[in-house]
Amino acid sequence: MYEPLSGEITIDGLPLNSLDQEWLKGNITVIQQENVLFNETIFRNIAFGGKDYRNVTEDQIRDASRMAMLEDTISELPFGYNTLAGVGGKKLSGGQRQRVRVYDPMFLRTYLIDVR
């Protein structure tokens, strides 16, 4: 972990550097402003965010879609969840790529930190 140049980063009021580093790695997911998707369907890119991505169900994907507020975006895509994201996800806008990555913590059941 990087130390902040000024101020303090806390989780539930505890300084980040006082927490167990292994716990942090297992419980925090970082969603970067610029992110990359695989040249796969939206469904598979979302599923890849899960620990057991091979067994993710359509219901789980749809539930996460509602939580990430991505339903409207997916419904506007030519083939919905079966739309190919393109190399690096370039067939989607930056905001759409980021929202697809927001699924990761929902499947991993981790905290979410949005890095801007």
Which key features would you list for this structure?
single chain, 116 residues, alpha+beta, Rossmann fold, two-stranded antiparallel ribbon, two-stranded parallel sheet, 4 strands
What does this structure look like?
The protein has helices at residues 21-27, 42-47, 58-67, 71-76, 94-101, 103-108, and strands at 10-11, 14-15, 28-31, 111-114. The chain is elongated and about 45 Å long. It has a single domain, classed as Rossmann fold (3-Layer(aba) Sandwich), CATH 3.40.50. The strands form two sheets. The chain has a two-stranded antiparallel ribbon with strand order 1-2. A two-stranded parallel ribbon has the order 3-4. With 116 residues, it is of the alpha+beta class. A hairpin with a 2-residue loop joins strand 1 (10-11) and strand 2 (14-15). It is built from six helices and four strands, in the order ββαβαααααβ. 37% of the residues lie in helices and 10% in strands.
User: Element order, helices and strands?
Assistant: EEHEHHHHHE
The coarse silhouette is elongated
- In the CATH hierarchy, what is the superfamily? P-loop containing nucleotide triphosphate hydrolases
Strand order of the largest sheet: 1-2
Topology record:
Blueprint: E1 10-11, E2 14-15, H1 21-27, E3 28-31, H2 42-47, H3 58-67, H4 71-76, H5 94-101, H6 103-108, E4 111-114
Parallel strand pairs: 3-4
Antiparallel strand pairs: 1-2
